[in-house]
Amino acid sequence: MAIPYQLRHKAKTAISSSNTVTDLSILRGKQFWIWDKQEHREQFIKTNGNCCFNHVIGLPQKEKQEFPLFDYEQLLFERLFSIDEDFKDKHLWILKSTGLGITEFFLRIIGWLCTKDDSLKGSQVCIVTGPRIELSVTLIDRLKALFYSKLGIIFSNKETVLELNGVRIEVYPSHHLDSMRGLPNVSFILLDEADFFPVGQQKDARDISERYIGKSNPFIVLASTPNRPGSLFDKIEHEPDNECIYHRIKLDYTYGLGKIYTKEEIEKAKQSPSFKREYDLQYLGIIGNTFHISDIDKAVLLGKSYDPNRIVVDAEKVLGLDPGWGSSAFGVCLLQVTDGQIQVLMADEFERPRYEDMISKVLDIIRGLNRWKLDQEVLDRCKIYVDAANPEFITTLKRQVGETSRWDFIQEKILYCKKLNLDLARYMTVVPVPFSTEGKNMIMHTKELLEFEAPLIAINPKFDKLITSLRTAISTDDGKLDKEQTSYHNVLDAFRLALKGIKMVKKELD
Q1: Which residue of 9, 33, 223, 440 is 20 to 30 Å from 363, comparing CA positions?
Q2: Cα distance between residue 209 and residue 202, in whole Å
Q3: What pLDDT is stored for residue 371 in this prediction?
Q4: In this structure, are 329 and 271 located in the same domain?
Q5: 50 and 193 both lie in a single domain
Q6: Distance CA 275, CA 360 (A)
Q7: d(C-alpha 210, C-alpha 381), whole Å
Q8: Do 124 and 181 contact (CB within 8 A), yes or no?
Q9: Torsion of CA 358, 436, 487, 273, to 10 degrees
Q10: C-alpha to C-alpha distance for 337 and 333, rounded to whole angstroms
Q11: Residues 338, 9: Cα–Cα separation, whole Å
C-alpha cells in the first residue's frame, strides 16, 4: 500500500524535525510468523490479532485481498533462520516466478529484523535496485507503507532512506553504488531483480555486496526472475557447489498455484511469449523489438519438417562465421537451400575458443558437406561469410581453402564489386563482411526473409540458441543490434552473415 502523496507531503511538513512519529514497542519480541496453523490461530485469538509481526502491521495484499504467508515463504524463512533464530544460510540466491511476492517478503523480513529487538541498531541495510531511481523510491516507499497501513506510522526521511529503530535502510540504484562502499556495519543486503541490472553493473553490485562478508557478515539475498543466458543469475546457478557461497532456491509458478495465482490467471499468462521466462524460470531474455514472434514461430514450425543432419550434396550452402576470442563467443551458422527452404544445418556459439581449434572446426564443417573432402567442387557450393573485423582469421582460412590471402587483391575486388554493384562471392570463397557498413542491411535482410509470405526459413527446434537470440534481438534507434541486451548475439551475427550469402534463386525457392 502506497502512502497518498497529499498525506505524505503533509506529514513531512508537520514532522520535519523528527524521524518517527509513534512508538514501535508493539513490535518488540514478535515472531515474524507462526508457521504452525493451530498455534497461530490460538495466539491470534489470545492476543486479539497481535500474535506476530505480520498480523500487527497487516497481511500482504493482492488486489486488496489479504493473504497469509505461504509454504514457499516458510522455505525461505527456514533457510535464513533456525527455530531459535540462529542464522542458517545468510546468503541466498532465489530464481523466482513473477508475482510470488518475494520482494514484499524480504521487505517485511527487513522491517521485522529492525524492530523485533535492538540487535541491528547502528547498522546499515542496503537494497540494490536497477538503474531507474523511480524504482528505488518505490521500494523504500513500500517499506514505509508497511508501518502506515495499520499502525499509522509516518517517516520523514528522504525518498531513498528509512531510519527504523536506529537502523539506516537505504536504496541504491545499480549505476550509483560508490556510496555503498565503505559502510561501517552492514547487516543486510537485498539485490532486487538483480538479473536485469545492466551487465557491467551486475558484477559491480555482486562484488561490493560480497566484500562485506569478511567485514560485517551480513545477510545477502539475490532475488530475481531470470533474464538472459550468461547473465548474473545464470552464472551463479552454474557455479560448482564447492565454490558457490549462495544457497540456491528455485521457485517457479507451480509454487504459487492455488495460492497467490489462480488457475485462470496462469492459463492467461501462458498465452504470453514471455511466460517461460517470467513464470517458468527459463533464461530467455526480454522480448526483442527486431523480429516478430509470429515469424520466428513460423520458422520453427517449418523447421520440424526437415532433418538437420541430412546434407543435400548438390544444394547451395552458406557458412556464416562471427569469430570471437577471450570474453566474446565464436558464432557459427550453416545454411542450405533445398526443397524450397533455407534450412539451418548448424547454429551455435563457442565460449573462449582457441584460434587453432576454430580453424580446424570450420574446415571439418566444410569437409563434412561431401564425404569429408575439401576440393573445389565442395567450395563452389559453399561460400563462407566472415566478419571483416577478424583479418587474421580470414587470412588463415583463405590459405586453408586454397585462395589468395593477399589483402591488396581482396581490397581491389571489394572496391570493384562495390562500384559495379556485383556480388563479391563471384571472386572468392571466403568473403569478408564489414558490420560497420553492412550490419543494418543484414538485419533488414534477415527480417525480410523471416516475414516472407510463403515461409522460407526453416529452423529446427534443436537450435535453441539461435531461436532465443531471434526472440530477444533488440535494435537501437539507428538500426544496429544492441548486443548487450540480445541473448546469444554471436550466433545471430553468424546467422545474418550466412543469410547475406543466400542467393534468392527462383528454381530453388519458388
Answers
A1: 440
A2: 11
A3: 60
A4: no
A5: yes
A6: 40
A7: 54
A8: no
A9: -130
A10: 13
A11: 69
User: Where residue 177 sits, what CATH number does that domain have?
Assistant: 3.40.50.300
- Percent helix, strand, coil in the chain (nearest 5)? 40, 20, 45
Q: What is the pLDDT of residue 1?
A: 39
Residue 498: partners with Cβ closer than 8 Å, 6 or more residues away: 318, 319, 320, 333, 334, 335, 385
| pLDDT at 344 (0 to 100) | 97
Q: Is 288 a member of any domain?
A: no
Q: What is the pLDDT of residue 102?
A: 97
Strand 167-173 with 161-164, pairing: antiparallel
Q: Which residue type sits at 321?
A: L
Same domain, 302 and 248: no
CB count within 10 Å of CB 262 equals: 12
Residue type (1 letter), 422: L
Last-in-domain residue among 278, 303, 322? 278
For position 298, which CATH number holds? 3.30.420.240
Residues 446 and 339 in one domain: yes
The whole domain housing 468 covers 293-509
Domain shared by 63 and 197, yes or no:
yes
Look at residue 377 in the predicted model and tell me its pLDDT. Answer: 60
- Counted residue by residue, the chain has a size of 510
Number of domains observed in the structure of the chain: 2
User: CA 475 to CA 199: how far, in whole Å?
Assistant: 17
Has residue 14 been placed in a domain? yes
Q: How many angstroms separate the CA atoms of 119 and 122, rounded? A: 9
Q: Identify whether 283 is part of a domain.
A: no
The last residue of a domain, from among 234, 249, 278: 278
Would you state the cell numbers that stand for residue 508, as one nine-digit string?
Answer: 530453388
Residues of the chain with pLDDT under 50: 1-21, 83-86, 504-510
String of b and e for 215-235 (b: at least 16 CB within 10 Å)? eeebbbbbbbbbbbbbbbbbe
| 194 three-state secondary structure | helix
Neighbours of 438 (CB within 10 A): 17
pLDDT digits (tens, 9 = 90+) for 237-264: 999 999 999 999 999 999 999 999 999 9
The answer to whether 464 and 407 have CB atoms below 8 angstroms apart is no
Distance CA 336, CA 312 (A): 8
